[in-house]
């Protein structure tokens, strides 16, 4: 279906769907989408489309997706203020904390896109092995962005670290080691690294893991994406000047378990596309974190 839209219009598109720009320019998650380009929105994802100039769009939406116009942009000015602060202070390490379904991946993508726009080379570290947008499930992933993306699944993978589980619950040490090593690798390729984390922020385990990440990374900025004050217990002993509090958008969408399963499958399908079977003799294979093959 063809839509004629005006500068300043804002739409929410819930996938699965596709938007093509026939004429004009829109912005999707901070990425500038120009004439002749298109955006694919998978099932389980929902994004705002901001019209930057009078445009003609081709929009296809499949059930249960939908598109609707809203009165104002979903991205608050506090996000853009933070980007200006990062650029001004030349902050290198940004740690993003938030519960499940608070929009952490969306936020990290927007930050990276806008930093690129301002001439800063960003990297994004996905620290969630269960719902990884970079790499494959069961790993931590790093992407040094060379161009803007709508979803981090589109970014070229720079490095991955194998955790071996969808949950860090029984894999604290590999998770912390992986986060540290990928952060160091990212800062060699980029000016600023944005570290996305799991939504596990409560209970003894969640608290311990997040506090360990803060201590080992020493981020210049810790972003709290929270609905009220659910993350305050994590940062009580850290300097207030390091903390940036951002309210969760009312438009943040809930992702069902079925949708999460499909979203987990997408990175694996992309990563292993074109893969082939190889045979290696056992004596040429080194093992780690297990008894097998270690004597």
Secondary structure layout:
Layout: E1 2-5, E2 10-14, E3 17-28, E4 31-34, E5 38-41, E6 46-61, E7 66-70, H1 77-89, E8 93-98, H2 104-117, E9 122-126, E10 139-144, E11 159-162, H3 172-189, E12 192-196, H4 203-217, E13 221-226, E14 243-247, H5 257-271
Parallel strand pairs: 8-12, 8-13, 9-12, 13-14
Antiparallel strand pairs: 1-6, 2-6, 2-7, 3-4, 3-5, 3-6, 9-10, 10-11
Q: Can you characterise this structure?
A:
There is one protein chain. 25% of the residues lie in helices and 29% in strands. The protein is built from five helices and 14 strands. Strands 1, 2, 3, 4, 5, 6 and 7 form a seven-stranded antiparallel beta sheet that branches. α1 packs across α2 (104-117) and α3 (172-189) runs parallel beside α4 (203-217). The N and C termini lie far apart (64 Å). The mean pLDDT is 92.
